[in-house]
Amino acid sequence: MKKIHHLALVTNNLELTLNSLNIKKSDIQEVFIDHEQKNTIYFVYIKENNLWLEIIVPTNENSTTYNFAKKFGLGLHHLGFTTNNLEETEKNYVSRPMVFKIGNYKNKVECFGGEISTIFMAIKGLILEFVYNVQKK
To answer: How crowded is residue 97: how many other Cβ atoms within 10 Å of its Cβ?
Structure first.
């Protein structure tokens, strides 16, 4: 199994989410405005577990997470794993039954090491994201 890199929560109420998890606003290490997916992402490093927490807030009704936030208010959206080869990971997963590729994205997230490429896969109700740090080639 690959290393879990992050857990991603979607919420329509950042304050409630932070309070529920006993996280202070000062614990947020980076805020990323994702114009493509229309989300604001807050990154918190959980050192006790050696992983990142993404708190995703949809910015409008066209957001990729809007319906999720509307339905659940707050919930686990996806698990993020690191990968050294996105193409190999994609081939491995799309060849499996019941797996649907959601999409690929490229962004610059400083707390993840700079430029990253990602791929999202859905297996029934489970969403997996695979993160490749381009700058660590």
So the answer is: 5
79 beta partners: 7, 128
E strand map for 12-123:
28-34, 39-46, 51-58, 74-82, 99-109, 114-123
Nearest to 130 by CA among 81, 95, 92, 93: 81
8-63 confidence digits (pLDDT tens) = 999 999 999 999 999 999 999 999 999 999 999 999 999 999 999 999 999 999 99
Structure tokens that stand for 17 in this block:
């989410």
**What tokens appear for 62 in the block?**
């066209």
Q: What residue has token string 């936030």?
A: 69
Give dist(CA 109, CA 43) in Å, integer. 9
Cβ neighbours for 101, distance < 8 A, ≥ 6 positions apart = 90, 93, 94, 119, 120, 121, 122
